[in-house]
Design goal:
The complex is a heterodimer of chains A (220) and B (128).
Chain A: H1 3-21, H2 27-39, H3 47-72, H4 75-115, H5 120-136, H6 139-168, H7 174-179, H8 209-218
Helix pairs in contact in A: 1-2, 2-3, 4-5, 4-6
Chain B: E1 9-12, H1 16-28, E2 34-37, H2 40-49, E3 54-57, H3 66-75, E4 84-88, H4 93-101, E5 106-109, H5 114-125
Parallel strand pairs in B: 1-2, 1-3, 3-4, 4-5
Helix pairs in contact in B: 2-3
Classes of the chains: A mainly alpha (220), B alpha/beta (128).
Protein backbone atom coordinates (compact mmCIF):
# COMPACT_ATOMS: atom_id res chain seq x y z
CA UNK A 1 0.00 0.00 0.00
CA UNK A 2 1.59 3.33 -1.01
CA UNK A 3 2.33 5.89 1.69
CA UNK A 4 -0.26 8.35 0.37
CA UNK A 5 -2.97 5.67 0.62
CA UNK A 6 -1.84 4.81 4.18
CA UNK A 7 -2.02 8.47 5.15
CA UNK A 8 -5.55 8.80 3.75
CA UNK A 9 -6.71 5.54 5.29
CA UNK A 10 -5.22 6.42 8.69
CA UNK A 11 -6.74 9.87 8.53
CA UNK A 12 -10.14 8.46 7.57
CA UNK A 13 -10.12 5.92 10.39
CA UNK A 14 -8.99 8.46 12.97
CA UNK A 15 -11.63 10.91 11.76
CA UNK A 16 -14.30 8.22 12.12
CA UNK A 17 -13.07 7.50 15.62
CA UNK A 18 -13.11 11.18 16.51
CA UNK A 19 -16.62 11.66 15.11
CA UNK A 20 -17.86 8.73 17.18
CA UNK A 21 -16.10 9.58 20.41
CA UNK A 22 -15.05 13.23 20.33
CA UNK A 23 -11.62 14.41 21.43
CA UNK A 24 -11.15 11.78 24.10
CA UNK A 25 -10.40 8.36 22.68
CA UNK A 26 -9.28 5.35 24.68
CA UNK A 27 -5.63 4.52 24.07
CA UNK A 28 -6.56 0.94 23.24
CA UNK A 29 -8.77 2.05 20.39
CA UNK A 30 -6.04 4.15 18.80
CA UNK A 31 -3.79 1.11 19.06
CA UNK A 32 -6.44 -1.05 17.36
CA UNK A 33 -6.75 1.38 14.45
CA UNK A 34 -3.00 1.49 13.98
CA UNK A 35 -2.71 -2.31 14.26
CA UNK A 36 -5.49 -2.83 11.70
CA UNK A 37 -3.73 -0.44 9.38
CA UNK A 38 -0.47 -2.33 9.75
CA UNK A 39 -2.26 -5.59 8.95
CA UNK A 40 -3.58 -4.02 5.79
CA UNK A 41 -0.11 -3.33 4.45
CA UNK A 42 0.37 -5.82 1.64
CA UNK A 43 2.56 -6.29 -1.43
CA UNK A 44 5.79 -4.54 -2.28
CA UNK A 45 6.81 -1.85 0.12
CA UNK A 46 8.67 1.24 -0.95
CA UNK A 47 11.27 2.80 1.33
CA UNK A 48 8.72 5.45 2.31
CA UNK A 49 6.10 2.79 3.08
CA UNK A 50 8.61 0.98 5.24
CA UNK A 51 9.41 4.13 7.15
CA UNK A 52 5.72 4.78 7.79
CA UNK A 53 5.29 1.13 8.79
CA UNK A 54 8.14 1.41 11.30
CA UNK A 55 6.76 4.61 12.74
CA UNK A 56 3.31 3.09 13.15
CA UNK A 57 4.81 -0.01 14.75
CA UNK A 58 6.69 2.24 17.16
CA UNK A 59 3.48 4.09 17.94
CA UNK A 60 1.67 0.82 18.77
CA UNK A 61 4.51 -0.26 21.07
CA UNK A 62 4.45 3.13 22.76
CA UNK A 63 0.72 2.96 23.36
CA UNK A 64 0.96 -0.55 24.79
CA UNK A 65 3.82 0.49 27.08
CA UNK A 66 1.92 3.59 28.23
CA UNK A 67 -1.17 1.51 29.03
CA UNK A 68 0.91 -0.97 31.00
CA UNK A 69 2.64 1.79 32.95
CA UNK A 70 -0.60 3.55 33.80
CA UNK A 71 -2.17 0.25 34.84
CA UNK A 72 0.81 -0.40 37.13
CA UNK A 73 0.07 2.86 38.89
CA UNK A 74 -3.20 1.19 39.98
CA UNK A 75 -5.37 4.31 39.53
CA UNK A 76 -8.33 2.41 40.99
CA UNK A 77 -6.48 2.39 44.32
CA UNK A 78 -6.22 6.17 44.25
CA UNK A 79 -9.94 6.38 43.59
CA UNK A 80 -11.14 3.71 46.00
CA UNK A 81 -8.60 3.92 48.78
CA UNK A 82 -6.29 6.94 48.95
CA UNK A 83 -8.70 9.76 48.19
CA UNK A 84 -11.51 8.51 50.47
CA UNK A 85 -8.91 7.95 53.17
CA UNK A 86 -7.51 11.47 52.73
CA UNK A 87 -11.02 12.92 52.83
CA UNK A 88 -11.79 11.02 56.04
CA UNK A 89 -8.57 12.30 57.60
CA UNK A 90 -9.45 15.88 56.69
CA UNK A 91 -12.96 15.48 58.09
CA UNK A 92 -11.37 14.14 61.29
CA UNK A 93 -9.18 17.28 61.48
CA UNK A 94 -12.28 19.48 61.26
CA UNK A 95 -14.01 17.46 63.98
CA UNK A 96 -10.94 17.49 66.22
CA UNK A 97 -10.34 21.23 65.89
CA UNK A 98 -14.02 21.93 66.53
CA UNK A 99 -13.99 19.76 69.63
CA UNK A 100 -10.75 21.36 70.89
CA UNK A 101 -12.10 24.86 70.20
CA UNK A 102 -15.25 24.09 72.16
CA UNK A 103 -13.16 22.84 75.09
CA UNK A 104 -11.14 26.06 74.98
CA UNK A 105 -14.33 28.12 74.86
CA UNK A 106 -15.79 26.19 77.82
CA UNK A 107 -12.72 27.05 79.85
CA UNK A 108 -12.67 30.69 78.74
CA UNK A 109 -16.32 31.16 79.61
CA UNK A 110 -15.57 29.77 83.07
CA UNK A 111 -12.67 32.23 83.45
CA UNK A 112 -15.03 35.04 82.43
CA UNK A 113 -17.56 34.06 85.07
CA UNK A 114 -14.78 33.97 87.67
CA UNK A 115 -13.53 37.35 86.49
CA UNK A 116 -16.93 38.82 87.37
CA UNK A 117 -16.21 37.96 91.00
CA UNK A 118 -12.63 39.30 90.97
CA UNK A 119 -11.45 42.80 91.96
CA UNK A 120 -11.98 45.31 89.15
CA UNK A 121 -8.38 45.58 87.96
CA UNK A 122 -7.87 41.82 87.88
CA UNK A 123 -11.27 41.33 86.25
CA UNK A 124 -10.28 43.72 83.44
CA UNK A 125 -6.99 41.88 82.90
CA UNK A 126 -8.79 38.56 82.74
CA UNK A 127 -11.36 39.95 80.31
CA UNK A 128 -8.57 41.26 78.04
CA UNK A 129 -7.03 37.78 78.05
CA UNK A 130 -10.31 36.07 77.25
CA UNK A 131 -10.91 38.52 74.39
CA UNK A 132 -7.57 37.52 72.87
CA UNK A 133 -8.47 33.85 73.22
CA UNK A 134 -11.83 34.41 71.50
CA UNK A 135 -10.03 36.20 68.67
CA UNK A 136 -7.52 33.36 68.33
CA UNK A 137 -10.36 30.82 68.15
CA UNK A 138 -11.29 32.32 64.77
CA UNK A 139 -8.81 29.79 63.42
CA UNK A 140 -11.34 26.97 63.63
CA UNK A 141 -13.69 28.57 61.12
CA UNK A 142 -10.88 29.51 58.74
CA UNK A 143 -9.17 26.11 58.85
CA UNK A 144 -12.53 24.40 58.41
CA UNK A 145 -13.22 26.41 55.26
CA UNK A 146 -9.72 25.78 53.92
CA UNK A 147 -10.11 22.05 54.45
CA UNK A 148 -13.45 22.13 52.65
CA UNK A 149 -11.64 23.66 49.67
CA UNK A 150 -9.05 20.83 49.76
CA UNK A 151 -11.81 18.20 49.93
CA UNK A 152 -13.42 19.76 46.84
CA UNK A 153 -10.04 19.63 45.03
CA UNK A 154 -9.69 15.96 45.96
CA UNK A 155 -13.16 15.29 44.59
CA UNK A 156 -12.10 16.90 41.32
CA UNK A 157 -9.01 14.65 41.16
CA UNK A 158 -11.19 11.64 41.94
CA UNK A 159 -13.45 12.48 38.99
CA UNK A 160 -10.45 12.76 36.66
CA UNK A 161 -9.11 9.42 37.82
CA UNK A 162 -12.50 7.83 37.31
CA UNK A 163 -12.42 9.03 33.69
CA UNK A 164 -8.90 7.64 33.28
CA UNK A 165 -9.88 4.27 34.73
CA UNK A 166 -12.87 4.14 32.37
CA UNK A 167 -10.68 4.98 29.37
CA UNK A 168 -8.16 2.31 30.33
CA UNK A 169 -10.83 -0.32 30.68
CA UNK A 170 -11.77 0.37 27.05
CA UNK A 171 -15.18 1.84 27.75
CA UNK A 172 -16.31 5.07 26.26
CA UNK A 173 -15.59 7.89 28.65
CA UNK A 174 -16.29 10.43 26.04
CA UNK A 175 -19.29 12.25 27.39
CA UNK A 176 -17.86 12.45 30.89
CA UNK A 177 -14.43 13.56 29.72
CA UNK A 178 -15.86 16.09 27.29
CA UNK A 179 -18.04 17.57 30.01
CA UNK A 180 -14.98 17.95 32.19
CA UNK A 181 -12.64 19.43 29.61
CA UNK A 182 -10.13 21.94 31.01
CA UNK A 183 -11.77 25.23 31.77
CA UNK A 184 -10.26 28.52 30.77
CA UNK A 185 -9.89 31.13 33.52
CA UNK A 186 -13.03 33.22 33.34
CA UNK A 187 -13.79 36.67 34.56
CA UNK A 188 -15.71 36.93 37.81
CA UNK A 189 -19.33 37.88 37.35
CA UNK A 190 -20.46 39.61 40.55
CA UNK A 191 -24.09 39.07 39.63
CA UNK A 192 -23.44 35.31 39.77
CA UNK A 193 -22.99 34.39 43.42
CA UNK A 194 -21.35 31.05 42.59
CA UNK A 195 -18.39 33.07 41.24
CA UNK A 196 -18.09 34.82 44.60
CA UNK A 197 -18.02 31.83 46.93
CA UNK A 198 -14.32 31.00 47.08
CA UNK A 199 -13.67 30.65 50.80
CA UNK A 200 -10.57 31.99 52.53
CA UNK A 201 -7.72 33.24 50.35
CA UNK A 202 -4.14 32.27 51.15
CA UNK A 203 -2.54 34.92 53.40
CA UNK A 204 -0.38 36.40 50.62
CA UNK A 205 -3.42 36.75 48.37
CA UNK A 206 -6.06 37.78 50.90
CA UNK A 207 -7.10 41.37 51.46
CA UNK A 208 -6.60 42.60 55.01
CA UNK A 209 -9.21 44.63 56.89
CA UNK A 210 -7.57 47.96 55.92
CA UNK A 211 -7.77 47.03 52.23
CA UNK A 212 -11.38 45.91 52.66
CA UNK A 213 -12.18 49.21 54.37
CA UNK A 214 -10.56 51.19 51.54
CA UNK A 215 -12.47 49.18 48.97
CA UNK A 216 -15.68 49.53 50.90
CA UNK A 217 -15.47 53.30 51.12
CA UNK A 218 -14.36 53.70 47.48
CA UNK A 219 -16.89 51.42 45.82
CA UNK A 220 -19.82 53.82 45.65
CA UNK B 1 -29.05 59.20 69.84
CA UNK B 2 -27.39 56.71 72.16
CA UNK B 3 -27.29 53.12 71.10
CA UNK B 4 -29.58 50.85 73.06
CA UNK B 5 -27.31 48.02 74.12
CA UNK B 6 -30.40 46.06 75.12
CA UNK B 7 -31.33 45.75 71.45
CA UNK B 8 -31.60 42.24 70.01
CA UNK B 9 -28.68 41.25 67.81
CA UNK B 10 -28.92 38.34 65.38
CA UNK B 11 -25.71 36.49 64.52
CA UNK B 12 -25.70 34.09 61.58
CA UNK B 13 -22.97 31.53 60.90
CA UNK B 14 -22.89 27.84 59.98
CA UNK B 15 -19.95 27.25 62.34
CA UNK B 16 -21.28 26.84 65.85
CA UNK B 17 -17.94 27.85 67.35
CA UNK B 18 -18.06 31.14 65.44
CA UNK B 19 -21.54 31.83 66.80
CA UNK B 20 -20.20 31.20 70.27
CA UNK B 21 -17.15 33.44 69.74
CA UNK B 22 -19.18 36.34 68.34
CA UNK B 23 -21.79 35.95 71.07
CA UNK B 24 -19.07 36.16 73.75
CA UNK B 25 -17.41 39.15 72.11
CA UNK B 26 -20.79 40.91 71.96
CA UNK B 27 -21.35 40.05 75.60
CA UNK B 28 -18.03 41.70 76.46
CA UNK B 29 -19.23 44.80 74.59
CA UNK B 30 -22.40 44.79 76.69
CA UNK B 31 -24.84 43.28 74.20
CA UNK B 32 -26.56 40.48 76.10
CA UNK B 33 -29.64 39.92 73.90
CA UNK B 34 -28.18 37.81 71.14
CA UNK B 35 -29.96 35.24 68.98
CA UNK B 36 -28.30 32.78 66.64
CA UNK B 37 -29.08 31.24 63.25
CA UNK B 38 -27.03 28.76 61.25
CA UNK B 39 -28.07 29.88 57.77
CA UNK B 40 -29.89 32.64 55.94
CA UNK B 41 -33.31 31.03 55.84
CA UNK B 42 -33.34 30.41 59.59
CA UNK B 43 -32.18 33.99 60.12
CA UNK B 44 -34.90 35.37 57.88
CA UNK B 45 -37.54 33.50 59.83
CA UNK B 46 -36.23 34.95 63.11
CA UNK B 47 -36.03 38.44 61.63
CA UNK B 48 -39.64 38.27 60.41
CA UNK B 49 -40.85 37.11 63.81
CA UNK B 50 -38.89 39.51 65.98
CA UNK B 51 -37.32 42.93 66.25
CA UNK B 52 -33.60 43.15 65.75
CA UNK B 53 -31.33 46.16 65.92
CA UNK B 54 -28.41 44.52 64.12
CA UNK B 55 -27.59 41.48 61.97
CA UNK B 56 -24.03 40.12 61.93
CA UNK B 57 -23.84 37.47 59.24
CA UNK B 58 -21.36 35.10 57.62
CA UNK B 59 -21.57 34.83 53.83
CA UNK B 60 -20.77 31.24 52.86
CA UNK B 61 -23.65 29.15 54.24
CA UNK B 62 -26.19 26.68 52.89
CA UNK B 63 -28.97 26.60 51.86
CA UNK B 64 -29.30 30.38 52.02
CA UNK B 65 -26.10 32.43 51.88
CA UNK B 66 -25.43 35.66 53.72
CA UNK B 67 -25.72 37.64 50.48
CA UNK B 68 -29.12 36.12 49.73
CA UNK B 69 -30.19 36.93 53.28
CA UNK B 70 -29.01 40.51 52.85
CA UNK B 71 -31.01 40.86 49.62
CA UNK B 72 -34.12 39.41 51.27
CA UNK B 73 -33.73 41.82 54.19
CA UNK B 74 -33.29 44.84 51.93
CA UNK B 75 -36.30 43.77 49.84
CA UNK B 76 -38.59 43.45 52.86
CA UNK B 77 -40.28 46.76 53.74
CA UNK B 78 -40.33 45.88 57.45
CA UNK B 79 -36.70 44.76 57.62
CA UNK B 80 -34.94 46.86 55.02
CA UNK B 81 -33.58 49.44 57.47
CA UNK B 82 -31.96 46.81 59.72
CA UNK B 83 -28.20 47.39 60.02
CA UNK B 84 -26.37 44.42 58.48
CA UNK B 85 -22.67 43.63 58.92
CA UNK B 86 -21.11 40.87 56.81
CA UNK B 87 -18.36 38.90 58.59
CA UNK B 88 -16.72 36.55 56.12
CA UNK B 89 -13.53 34.93 54.88
CA UNK B 90 -14.47 36.04 51.35
CA UNK B 91 -11.97 38.83 50.91
CA UNK B 92 -11.95 39.47 47.17
CA UNK B 93 -12.79 42.94 45.92
CA UNK B 94 -15.67 41.51 43.85
CA UNK B 95 -17.24 40.23 47.06
CA UNK B 96 -17.03 43.57 48.82
CA UNK B 97 -18.53 45.33 45.79
CA UNK B 98 -21.34 42.78 45.44
CA UNK B 99 -22.17 43.04 49.15
CA UNK B 100 -22.13 46.82 49.02
CA UNK B 101 -24.37 46.85 45.95
CA UNK B 102 -26.78 44.63 47.86
CA UNK B 103 -26.88 47.17 50.68
CA UNK B 104 -24.53 45.82 53.35
CA UNK B 105 -23.85 48.30 56.15
CA UNK B 106 -20.24 47.22 56.71
CA UNK B 107 -17.88 44.37 55.92
CA UNK B 108 -15.47 42.49 58.19
CA UNK B 109 -12.98 39.98 56.88
CA UNK B 110 -12.18 36.87 58.93
CA UNK B 111 -10.15 36.32 60.98
CA UNK B 112 -11.07 39.49 62.83
CA UNK B 113 -10.42 40.91 66.27
CA UNK B 114 -12.69 42.41 68.91
CA UNK B 115 -11.51 45.93 68.12
CA UNK B 116 -12.52 45.58 64.47
CA UNK B 117 -15.93 44.21 65.44
CA UNK B 118 -16.52 47.07 67.84
CA UNK B 119 -15.27 49.64 65.33
CA UNK B 120 -17.64 48.44 62.62
CA UNK B 121 -20.55 48.29 65.04
CA UNK B 122 -19.85 51.87 66.09
CA UNK B 123 -19.69 52.99 62.47
CA UNK B 124 -23.06 51.35 61.78
CA UNK B 125 -24.92 52.02 65.04
CA UNK B 126 -23.10 54.98 66.53
CA UNK B 127 -21.09 55.18 69.79
CA UNK B 128 -22.02 52.88 72.65
Amino acid sequence: MPAATIDRDLERRLTELKERQGDTVALGQVGLVVSALLDSLRGDLTAADLRVYQELEGLVSYIHAARAEIAQLRPQDIQTEFIPSATDELDAIVDATESATNSILDAVEMVESLAAKAPEELAQQLTDCTTRIYEACNFQDITGQRITKVVKALKHIEDKIEALVTALSGEAAIAKAAAKAPRAEKAVDITNEADLLNGPQLPDKASNQAEIDALFSNSD
Amino acid sequence: MAVDINMRVLIVDDYKTMLRIVRNLLKQLGFMNVDEATDGSMALQLLRNGTYGLVISDWNMEPMTGLQLLKEVRADPKLKATPFIMVTAESKSENVIAAKQAGVSNYIVKPFNAETLKGKMVSVLGEF
